[in-house]
Amino acid sequence: MTAARLDHTHPEGSISGRSVELTTLADAVADRHRLVMVEGEAGVGKTRLLRELLRHPGTTAHTVLEAHCLPVQATHPYGAIVEMFAGAVDELRAVGSALPPITGALAPLLPELRDLLPEHEPALSPSVARHQVLRAVTAVLELLDQPLVVLDNLQWADEETLDLVRFLALSPRDTVTVVLLCRGDEINANELVEAYRGRGHTITRISLAPLTVPGVAEFLRESGVCAAPEFAAELHHRSAGLPLVVEELVRELADHSPTAAGLDEIGVPTRVRDAVVERLTRLGRPATAVCRAVAVFGHPAGEADIAALSGLSDRGMAAALEVALRARMLHETARGHYDLRHPLAARAVYEAIPGPRRREMHLRAIKRLIGSARPGLMQLAHHYRHADELDRWVECVLAAAQEAADSGVPVAGMRILENALDDAELPISAKEAIALRLSREMLQGIATPDTIDRLRTVVRDWPLPRDVGAEIRMNLGLVLVNQVGQVTAGQREIERALTDLPSRRMVRARGMATLALPQVGFVPVATNLRWLAQAEQACAGTTDTEAIAAMRANRLTVRMQIADPGAWRVIDLLPPAPAAPGLRRQLGRTHLNMADAAVWNGHFGPARHHLDAAAELVDDRSAPYLSSLGAGTELRLLAATGPWDGLAEKADRLVAAVGQMGYLAADALLVLGWLQTSRSRTSDALRTLQAAADAAPGHVPIVVTAHAGRAAILSARGQTTAARAAAEAGVDLVRQKDNWVWAAELAPVATEVFLQSGRAREAGTLLTEFRRGIQGRDAPLAAAADLVCAALLAQHRGGHAEAMALFAEAAERYGALPHRRAAARATELAGLCAADAGDLGTAVRDLRTAEAEFSALTATTDALRCRKALRRHDPGRPTRGRRGYGNALSPREKAIAKFAASGLTNREIAEKLTLSRRTVECHVANVMRKLDVSSRTSLGAVLD
């Protein structure tokens, strides 16, 4: 039977991260251990564990007498005893006739049971009365069925209740079990344990630690919170793993997103704040002053820091620090440094400090930091801000942003400036300087949509000096063009800024140089070249070495993007790595632009050289934007040259890394689309290629190449009209731009699509335009594509021998680059022409060569197409063999499909089945094609 009235304040359910402790506690009660002590700091979940114990099937046979000690200074003597028996009135009445005379001593405490309790003479003295009450309680317990005495929050117990706990150790009955829940740091728990151990009783002691990150993740799952995996770690950091804090934050998340930003919006939940303030008030003034000092300091503080802010003497501070540590309000983070238990506790303590006192303590912190060897600028800025010293705050903010830039961490500087710009107390006189600095810093970091929206508001709504507003607008336009992909909007901002910057030559030159880049925007190349000439004129005579390096980078970029053969002579004169960070960044940008253009043009060897050179000059911290561009270029290079092992995973990582700045993911999406096409995932490929074009709508070579990929897929599906529309869209864009070297992927596809749809004249016109457009250009990829286009036209006219020779020459050109998939495709087409010409020996040789290369690349769709052609044209190829399964899954495919559906990677499946990874990749691609699913996660439902 259970006499306790359970508190249902919190939702019922399994106890996250405490299953081991619950089992230990339930087993101890079932085995009738005399004393079970559950210890842990405030909020660690002792009371929750008790609730779960009282719901446990193993406690149903016990008579539970439960009491909660209260945190009040003046408690009624025997308060816990009164609560304990008041909840067990029915049980006491059931044994009423057997109550011995000594139990009458309880009558003054329990008037509601006066009619039940025997008559009792008043004690001769208070000490005798106290002893009689303790004997009476023991006598009652001996009459109850398996009594289980539970005392929660024993650290707040009155002395009479503690006497009862000690007295129960004397009870001769083995069926009495005492469960104590307490903060072991606030009572002498060891003394109580020894009292029971000295009487030979069995003791179980459970110490509850905060939840681990997996424990917090389990709590989130059981609470139905769907969040990213890293959210559990963030929640653990903010709560220190204390279940009370975790639970309150999760409760508040009902109206907020389960993200770090959502937690910021919540602030300190009321129940957590009340718990922290309650503990603070019980520490005493010196320990409270120590906790307040740490909260104001804002990060782990040393003893000297705490003394300076608290105003305590060294001796008084040391004693107060010990009290705060023992109460677990503070914890030691490193030798001699202390911090509040968790960030929410720090905030609750800080907000409880009266405003004038807070400002005074911040001024003390400033004095303390300035007196240190090297004060942190952001620390000083924090204290100046909260001491209302706003001018000094702004000085520190600008200095900290500069320090971040000088240290090669522009993103950190951007966050500092953005936080200042969002502060409602930012002086009007400082807004201009902060906004201008932010617009400059975002050119090196990766500007988020929030950053861009802030600066758009600045140039639209703020009354700024003309030249300042124009420079911010210029920098905003540069970011829109280079990072966001909003080319038209960005170019419009740049052109508007140019009209307001008549005297700022170098700023004007930077904008003109961006308008000069052929790769972005839809104006003809001739217009880009005119902008380049104006930019160089604006730079004439400058002695600014970084500006000179920036102009050289843009000049070379323009020449490489139009495949100017003379560009190489200038590239060969590029200087070695300079020491100055700005010059290193400009040289790194030069090498990255060279690599990017070299890949589009087909100079794969030089592209690798420039990527390696850029890697020595640019890193993720100092120039994350440039690093992301370099990663995208490398993906396109690997897609052409191989190997493809892990290429999809690398592309996925880049897409995830650039986050909201989708423009920087365009290269990766393009590569993923190619890989999906080659692995029979054509529906996915159509979507991914469209996503690449949508991510970078103003990046001409990406959009043109995405059109080419979509046209090829649609043509292979027999959707001729849609394929022709995609091809024509790409051709129209190249014509508008008048830079035909970017049609290297498109021209062969468009030619084939036009021929299939009965538009041979358009195909011929396209070849003429393409050939004229690349004439005199150093673009080997386009030159090889020219041969493929000519071969397709010859094949269409019936000139199979001519087409075979042209395809073979194209394959040789592609192979020399090397562009492995293009070379294999040209070899395949040469083999098909040989078969049409009756040269079956050459046909079989070429088809076998192409099939082997496609298989080596794991281009399963292409390899399968070659195998089908070989079955038609190879007279020596066996026509019988293993059973064919058509669109049904073979036994091997079924086994691999089940493993893939369970979440295993290709590598793990290969290890289980003793197969090569490439073989598994081929099988997985075939499975997905046969089952018509677009992702591995869909396999489970189809297989079931």
Automatic annotation (TrEMBL):
Pfam families in alphabetical order: AAA_16, GerE
Signal peptide residue numbers: none
UniProt keywords, alphabetically: ATP-binding, Nucleotide-binding
Domain HTH luxR-type per the UniProt entry, residue ranges: 882-944
Keyword Nucleotide-binding: yes
PROSITE patterns: HTH_LUXR_1 (PS00622), HTH_LUXR_2 (PS50043)
Name the record gives this protein: AAA family ATPase
Taxonomic source organism: Actinokineospora xionganensis
